[in-house]
Amino acid sequence: MPLRQKIIITVASTFNDAVREHILTFLLCDLRSHLDLALAWLYEEYSIMQGFTRLPDLRRNSRLDQSYNTLLNSFVSSSSSDAIVLSRLLLEAPVVTEQVLDQLCIICRDEQRCNWSMGPRSASCNRASLGSIVHNLQRRAEM
């Protein structure tokens, strides 16, 4: 990881919410160009959430899973119309949360946003498949 990227990720993951929000805004302005940085931040948040990395002092009173969820949801929302960025996010994120799956179902049900990578016939088939997958995941979570 380049030094510049490491410094930005360290600042983003250890400082207060105002600093985190500024860095998030910077990334969302052009997520395609900053996708590696966004993924590195996701991995850092995941590492903190799982206890692999020491918890920063400024974040001792925060919900660690909420930080990861907010970050991933923001990235998915921002990239919902860009198939390449969305695909990389979903394939390379350490964990895809239920909130993101719900968000993905909404994206796939929207014919304007879902048809970018598939034809209309495949899109409706994939929407049905995704709905079934999410339903099964929700049933497992209830058990």
The proportion of residues forming helix, as a percent range, comes to: over 70%
How large is the count of helical segments? Answer: 8
Shape: globular
- The stretches of 5 or more residues where confidence is low (pLDDT under 50) are none
Let me know the average pLDDT.
79
Kindly describe this structure.
InterPro entries: Symplekin/Pta1. By secondary structure, the protein is mainly α. The chain is built from eight helices and no strands. It has helices at 3-14, 17-29, 35-50, 64-78, 83-92, 98-109, 111-114, 120-142. Helix 1 crosses helix 2 (17-29), helix 1 packs across helix 3 and helix 6 (98-109) packs antiparallel against helix 8. It starts with a helix and ends with a helix.
Keywords:
single chain, 143 residues, mainly alpha, 8 helices, globular, Symplekin/Pta1
Furnish the topology, listing elements before pairings.
Layout: H1 3-14, H2 17-29, H3 35-50, H4 64-78, H5 83-92, H6 98-109, H7 111-114, H8 120-142
Helix pairs in contact: 1-2, 1-3, 3-4, 4-6, 6-8
GO cellular component, one term: mRNA cleavage and polyadenylation specificity factor complex
InterPro entries: Symplekin/Pta1
